[in-house]
Specification:
280 residues, mainly alpha, MetI-like fold, 2 domains, disordered C terminus
Length: 280
């Protein structure tokens, strides 16, 4: 029996390792081809070509007149911070109320909110554009921030709800005995205990916002003069470009910051998920 379990565990490990390697192939191609010439890329895209690798292509992409990458970084970072701040400020009180509400009502309301997780963002972009145009927010950062915040609310609310449900109600009761109201209990007692899950949600939502292309492209538009990293890459590379010495270095510069952030904070993601699983 023990030998059978060991074999099953080894098979699962091998399967996961193969899937992980397969998911790393695009990143490998991006990194190795960012330092190669057009001829080398076309001849053998999988070869690292260490002897002829050059940083000139990265330098050209950094100084590309069609894409100010520092401006793209600044716009995207501002968007990430605003969306996370607004989304968490909205979802924390809502999740707290739902988690402390009788089961039937809380389940109905929760299902209503998280139904948005099953609707692709691209499906609602067209009606959202009409709404933003009607209220004068089309082609503006506030309009994009409001829309992208709305797209992150279902996931954020779902995760916060599950985490708060693991926190004992005795914390609320003790605070109430001391004269604390519900808002004080949330912000001074519950929220500090949510730091691991706050970090988890921040990182996952940041990845989603950073990588989104359709929303900023449609809402900001090419005439607004505002672009994120993804829309800037599209403008720099061009719709029909085949100059891979421009494509790969520009894409690498676009993903480096979010990769660094994820690697640096991945332990917070794991600790947040583990805390939500074992608390209570």
């Amino acid at each position: 029996m023990k030998k059978t379990l060991t074999s099953a565990a080894a098979a699962r490990t091998g399967f996961i390792a193969l899937v992980s390697l397969g998911m790393l192939v695009p990143m490998y191609l991006l990194v190795v081809n960012a330092f190669k010439s057009q001829r080398e890329i076309l001849a053998d895209p999988f070869s690292p070509a260490l002897g002829s690798a050059s940083f000139r292509y990265l330098s050209d992409a950094w100084n590309n007149p069609d894409f100010d990458i520092l401006k793209g970084y600044g716009t995207t970072i501002a968007l990430v911070l605003c969306v996370n701040a607004l989304g968490m400020a909205l979802c924390a009180p809502a999740a707290y109320v739902l988690a402390r509400t009788p089961k039937t009502l809380s389940r109905v309301l929760l299902f209503f909110f998280i139904a948005g997780m099953f609707i692709p963002t691209q499906v609602i972009l067209v009606p959202v554009i009409f709404v933003l145009r009607a209220v004068g927010l089309m082609g503006t950062m506030p309009g994009l921030i409001l829309f992208m915040t709305a797209t992150t609310v279902p996931f954020t609310l779902f995760v916060f709800f599950g985490y708060i449900r693991t926190l004992p109600r005795s914390l609320d009761e003790a605070a109430a005995i001391d004269g604390a109201g519900r808002y004080y209990t949330l912000w001074r007692i519950i929220l500090p205990l949510m730091r691991p899950i706050l970090a988890t949600v921040f990182i996952l939502n940041s990845l989603s916002v950073w990588n989104d292309f359709a929303s900023p492209q449609m809402i900001l538009g090419p005439g607004s003069g505002i672009y994120t990293v993804t829309t800037g890459v599209y403008a720099a590379v061009g719709q029909y470009s085949t100059d891979y010495t421009k494509v790969f270095p520009t894409l690498l510069l676009a993903v480096i910051p979010i990769l660094v952030i994820f690697v640096a904070m991945q332990r917070h993601v794991m600790s947040g998920l583990a805390a939500g699983a074992v608390k209570g």
